[in-house]
Amino acid sequence: MKTVQVSPFFFAFESDFVDTLKCVPMIVRYKLDSCGVKLKLHEWAKFSVEQKQKLAYLACYKESEIKDYGRFVKQLVFDQFRYNASLLAEVNDSWNFLNQVPQEVQQKAFEWNCSPLTLKQWISLNTLQRFALVKLSRSGHEGKNFSVALAEFKISGK
């Protein structure tokens, strides 16, 4: 997986939970994918706000930072639950590919009656925005924030 330096950032569509960090923000999801650790929502819920903030702001770009980040998350999980954190078997990093808009993103746009994204629009997005659209497109997400994210990213939604 190609890792791109991404500054800690919270999207406006995450504003309903950023103050409390009751849900895992996209910046943390991006970093978890980068280091290959799977964090379950019940695990996230047990962390303190300070620990959650640290996970959002810790550097996770250079190889050494990615390893340190992974160790930190694993240690948090072990300290809290006394078991090892789950690892991601594989990361489908379609947000890194700029030669086509991922099919899952186009499908979600169709499902939400949004205009399909053009390649030019896809390329104009930064890495974290593309990551967010891919994550919001995948099963397990109700997708309600998909069209909100498109509007936030200045891409025509509904």
TrEMBL record:
User: Which InterPro entries does this chain map to?
Assistant: NarM
Database matches in Pfam families: Nitr_red_assoc
| UniProt-listed NCBIfam families | nitr_red_assoc
State the name under which the record lists this protein: Nitrate reductase associated protein
Organism of provenance: Dyadobacter psychrotolerans
